[in-house]
Amino acid sequence: MTKTIAIIGRPNVGKSTLFNRLIEKRIAIVADEPGVTRDFIIEGYEDKGINFNLIDTAGIYESNKKKLSKVLKESSKSAIERSDILIFLLDVREGITSDDLYLSKLWPKTDQRSGITHSWC
To answer: pTM value?
Structure first.
């Protein structure tokens, strides 16, 4: 069974850059301005003989009220829900923000399929 990995985080923390590096292709758009990724991208990825579906998600802000931001947030939530593994990227130069804390609460503490309890540090 192929596992799905989603790369999540605020805008401009390096999600698309990591995605491109892992799949060894330039599929995801990388730019200095936030909000370039508008929908999640799924690509096959193999590591040490194990196949994964890797998802690059749009960045999530907690408080942005713009309609587009709400659509992107829902898209990223959908990617989180369909994933078995999450890679949560942070920008260490800015430290942990309220948006990071909001995002950390979007995934369930226990996986309903496996009963595994998740945590982050």
So the answer is: 0.76
In terms of Cα–Cα distance, which of 58, 69, 56, 65 is closest to 26? 56
DSSP labels, 60-98: --SS---HHHHHHHHHHHHHHHT-SEEEE---TTT-S-H
DSSP letter, residue 116: P
Q: Which two structure tokens, joined as six digits, stand for 12?
A: 């401009």
CATH topology of domain 3-104: Rossmann fold (3.40.50)
Instruction: Give residue limits of the domains in the chain.
Output: 3-104
Render each residue's pLDDT in the chain as its tens digit; 121 residues: 788 999 988 888 888 999 999 998 888 777 666 655 556 788 998 888 889 999 998 887 766 555 556 666 777 777 788 888 888 899 888 888 888 888 887 766 545 555 544 444 4
> Bridge partners of 7?
56, 87
- Contacts by residues 100-103 (CB-CB < 8 Å, ≥ 24 positions apart): 100/9, 100/10, 102/60, 102/62, 103/8, 103/9, 103/10, 103/60, 103/62
